[in-house]
Amino acid sequence: MVARHTEGPPVPRIAEELGVSARTVWKWLRRHRTGGAAALESRSSASSAPDAARPWIDIACRLRRDFRLTAAEIAAKLHLPRSTVARWLRQAGLGRLSSLEPKEPPRRYQRDRPGELIHLDIKKLGRFARAGHRSTGDRRAGRNRGAGWDFVHVAIDDATRLAYVEVLPDERRGTATGFLVRALRWFRARGVRAERIMTDNGSAYVSKLFAKAIRLLGLRHIRTRPYTPRTNGKAERFIQTLLREWAYAIPYPSSDARARDLPRWIDWYNHKRSHSAIGSRTPVVALNNLMRFHT
């Protein structure tokens, strides 16, 4: 760019010849004009700020940490562009005010008895009539517009990680309540008597119908703290495994085919997949061991 510019052609022509924008050409010409050939060498973003800007960056970061000022407030105090201050804060890892708060230590717990706590949750998955780019990696095939959603309802035992899952058409109160009854029946057939149910604060779980079912079944309902999904962490972690190893594992030809494959995966998960959190055992083995211990 610099060499062509010294030959005389205008910047727009240079940009067209090199396949870049005129703004890019002007940027490199300006760097060469102020710093010579050395300014054209590659440099990391961490060291790209001029030395003269370092004191201002330090002041901006201090105002952010000590006084919790926004980028706009800092920019106004220092008489600098807001975009510049925001970029400095992002590079320093202070782009969000939440990053200034001390991280809450993880609260891990493990119930002792099967059925002592059952986690419920719902994951929404898009329906499709043909394999999408998430599975195939090919974005040229187009989207499955208007296909709707599948709602994957999950129930997982805290002590053993034994799981029961259904793909249902919605997440309404009647559907969620029916799933609860069927899940408890499934666990009961395996010797697991539920005592407590943990859910988030979704509309189905806070409905009167769901509360009535909980009461009639003699269960205790525990709700997670609002906007704190980690409180129901075992369900969240199970859903991540479910997505990675079932929903997105292979390029299913359709969402119906994906749903038909779910029983196979759940059977493998409960009987063959080991978990480090339960001593590298499978859920069924953990269940059998705990049932003998508590009998």
From TrEMBL:
Give every Integrase catalytic domain span: 110-291
Sorted alphabetically, which keywords does the UniProt record give? Answer: DNA-binding, Homeobox
The biological processes this protein is annotated with in GO are:
DNA integration
* SUPFAM superfamilies per record: Homeodomain-like, Ribonuclease H-like
- Cite the PROSITE patterns for this sequence: INTEGRASE (PS50994)
Name any one GO molecular function.
Answer: DNA binding
Protein name as annotated = Homeodomain-like domain-containing protein
